[in-house]
Amino acid sequence: MRITGQMMTQKLIGNIQNNMTRMEKWQRDLATGKKIHSPSDDPVGTSYALRYRSELAQNDQFTKNVDSANSWVQYTDKMLDSATQVLQRARELAVAGANDTQDVSAKRAIADEIDQLYKQMVAIGNSQFNGAYVFNGMLTDQKPYEEANAELATPHAGVFRYEIGPGTMLDVNTLGRDAFGTSPSSDNAFQALKDLRDALINDSQPGVANGISQVNNRINEILEIRAGIGARMNRLDLAENRLTDIDLNLQTLQTKVEDTDMAETITKFKIAEDVYRASLNTGAHIIQPSLIDFLR
Amino acid sequence: MRSTFFGLEIAKRSLFTEQAALNTTGHNIANSNTPGYSRQVVNRVQTPSMEYPHLNKPAGPGQVGTGVEITQIYRVREQFLDSQYRNESKTYGEWTSRSDILGKVEAIINEPSSSGIRTVINELWTSFQDLSKTSTPDAAIAARKIVAQRAVAVAEAFNHQSQQLNELDADITESIQIKVKTVNAKLEEIQSINVRIKELSVLGDIPNDLLDQRDLLVDQISRLVDVKVTEANSMYSLTIGGNVVIDANNAVTTLSETNPVVTGGEIKGLIDAKNIDVANYKNQLDLLAQTLATGEVKMKLENDYTIPNGVSVRGADGTVYNAGIVLPKGTEILVNGLNGLHELGYTMNSPLETGQAFFVSTGGSITAGSIRLNPDMLTNPANIASSMSMYNDGTIDRVVQGDNSLALMMSNLGNALMTFTDASGTVNTTLEGYFRGIVAEIGVRSETAQSNQYNAYVIASQIDSRRMSVSGVSLDEEMANMMMFQKAYAAAARALTTMDEALDVVINRMGLVGR
């Protein structure tokens, strides 16, 4: 084949261009730490990368939801703990009041204290978490219990849920109806406390005994509900662990698809750089001499 | 009897020939870097010899040479390589412009990134999740403001991409026009060169440099369009896209600037990029925006739902349920996108009212370019519905604000399967799944275009280098030739001098006897 100067020059320019393009690609991968810069770099990888990104964002949101659910549930539990303490105190007072050795004025004093406990119980029933009434179902903006006649109140029965995993819902709120009893009903917490108070005022021995059993029933009911809340907290813990695992998995997958393998890329870059230098060097030698330089 | 001065004639012919060869070498060196130049070679032949004169018989012992003459100065060129080169140049041009435009589309898509359409849609879903967790009026308004901002971001992302695509489309149209103008101008040039070549050829001349120029022009056109050359009576006739643009009578039919008919080259690449790549992506983006707002989707009720007045609901089997009917939690219903879903719920406003369309259009049907958040929701975020139940507070109906079931359903719209029908068929996937598909499709197209471009480049440059091997000027070769011609010239001059001296003897020193 006949070789001409123009041919060699063009080939040289083309080769140098190719080498530079290759170096530029590795350089970009190294400088950004990413190997996908636009979809055409790796169409399949891009589609995976997009999915991992979305799933990671969703996972973050679920983790936030778990946290919110956790604080709501824990708050409810704390309130129900207080309710139990109130009822236990009422039972202690009632047992003392049931004793015949107490005179009428002492019983009145006990009745007064039980009335305070009733008010305390109403306050618990109206407890708010971040400004929302926790025991009023979905009507979180409405106060469920009126102090005058809390035993007659029918709180809202709507259960709302948070999403704590893809398609996984968790009931967040505890219904006032379940925690404090339905109305009218003898084991309604407010009814029980009012009955107890009235029995003490009226000095009715059987009334007090009856009231104590009502309170006992309510304490047991609340304990059952709290057992349910405990189970929910366990579920939230599990969900949180699972979300953490998924997060780690997704990040690993994302890194594999999107991130530059530094060791490999630096090696490739070095090779490309050597080839580039070689092409420049040979270029400098090829272009220089021709017959003209030797004719005198 | 031969002429006394015959030797002078031979030497003169030799001098002229070598001089012409030297001039041609000079011309070659001068044009060694001229685009399209083919090296020229002087074709020399012996002049007809004649009988050697003899005393006895006319037929001598041999014939005597009479010197040299130039028959032709021709250019070294292979037509076959030209047509091969033009064929590859056409393919290279087509994929160059196609991959260039696809690269721009990829830049518009801007994925994978943390600010593309995927991200903003995702943030809309998570803002609905946050809304689902707010139960007090204050927090609910704050969360709604965030939902509204996220929705604005979604609409703007769509609008922005749509606008960029429209601009790209206009740019392509303009650049097609410019390239067609270039082709048309070159056609006119070829026509005028055709005329001059014809004039000179008729006289028996070979206008090498005009031939080179004409071939160069065809080479240049071949990158822009598919051009086929036929030569008759030393004139070129050209066809582009199957239509004759320069006919045998040298009449030019220019290409249409608005709708050029071509089957290859940069112009074809631009037309395809416009009509296939950009148009497809535009349609897909429109479809995505439309489906997000109003695409039919099957959703599961997150709470018992009493159908409000003025609303009717379609069950999964198509049964229509009217106002007053109670659908239990878990019932599957069909709704029309985010808008249809939103219209099922109650806003936070009092008196009680149901939701309006979430996304609206700035005019006409909803497209990527026209989609925007219902302005009422931006001015008053309370217009965003998240609840699906109401109660009567003794005097009027009110919304149950703590009911988050609609917010949950709206946030889950992103995970629901929807139907998308575009140029490549019908798919059942999530909104994001469809978007991922679009991105991957553009990626594959662009990748293919790039590799096609590279392959065509390699082949075209190989052929071009074959052409340069044949037609290119080698300075070494020219130098060697120059030495050779120069020496021959000097020798011819010496021969002339020798003849001259021989004649000097005859003319000046003979016949002096007896003087």
From TrEMBL, chain A:
Residues 213-293 form the Flagellin C-terminal domain. Residues 5-138 form the Flagellin N-terminal domain. Its main location: other. It comes from Tumebacillus algifaecis. NCBIfam families: flagell_flgL. This is Flagellar biosynthesis protein FlgL. GO terms for cellular component: bacterial-type flagellum hook. The keyword ATP-binding does not apply. One of its GO terms (molecular function) is structural molecule activity. It is found in: Bacterial flagellum. The keyword Endoplasmic reticulum does not apply. Gene3D superfamilies: f41 fragment of flagellin, N-terminal domain (1.20.1330.10). GO terms for biological process: bacterial-type flagellum-dependent cell motility. Belongs to the bacterial flagellin family. Keywords: Bacterial flagellum, Cell projection, Cilium, Flagellum.
UniProtKB/TrEMBL annotation, chain B:
The keyword Secreted applies. Residues 468-508 form the Flagellar basal-body/hook protein C-terminal domain. It comes from the Bacteria. The keyword Transcription does not apply. Its main location: other. Pfam families: Flg_bb_rod, Flg_bbr_C, FlgK_D1. GO terms for biological process: bacterial-type flagellum assembly. GO terms for cellular component: bacterial-type flagellum hook; extracellular region. Belongs to the flagella basal body rod proteins family. NCBIfam families: flgK_ends. This is Flagellar hook-associated protein 1. It comes from Tumebacillus algifaecis. The lineage of its organism: Bacteria, Bacillati, Bacillota, Bacilli, Bacillales. The gene is flgK.
